[in-house]
Amino acid sequence: MLRLLVVVLLLANAGYYAWSQGLLRDWGLAPAEQAEPQRLQQQLRPEALRLVLAPAADPALATEPAQGAQPAEPAAATSEGAAPAVVAGECLQAGVFDEGQADVLRRAAEALPQGSWSLEPTTIAGRWMVYMGRFADGEALARKRAELRERGVPFDRPSNPALEPGLSLGRFSTEEAAQRGLSNLTVKGVRTARVMQERPDTPGYTLRLPAVDDALRAQVEALRPALAGKTLRPCV
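Below the sequence we write its predicted structure tokens.
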């Protein structure tokens, strides 16, 4: 029985092989074709097919924008060799100058290009001081100086000739600050000093050079003798 089963399996394998290879096609026994002959049958004159290369595009036409289209914006230069942006000149100023100093500076600045400079009006703040005087004579002034040295109180001459002979025991930008200074001196035994205005508010001027480039800078150097010792600095 086992032998018969083996023989049947061998015959079945041989038959499947013959069928799968198309050996039994003549008897109508063969697997279905996997190709698609119907697609080939649908082609129309395949022998007339030719490959045609497209013509090269005309550079002039390629760069010309279509009718109605907006031209493209030029790309910004980003290479290292691109020219740097132009930097505006530096704004410089000096001051404050009083009337006499401003007259000297105005005459010197006339050599500069028109519109490159201006003298802008401002105010020179007044100054207050703790004052002692006026003394009757030089001898009285000398005695007061010696007394102040013993007390350790600094002093100098007032800048206003109308207050001579006298002594300044401190200068201040406001009257309130001068009064506080006087109070501190009272503690040290100073009794005859008083607060007064050494200089009232006066008109002044500030020199302004809004755009000093390299070309103008050399000409500005010629102004230094007329700056009355004041320094050019960046504008604020």
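The beta strands are 90-97, 118-124, 127-133, 166-172, 194-199, 202-212, 233-234.
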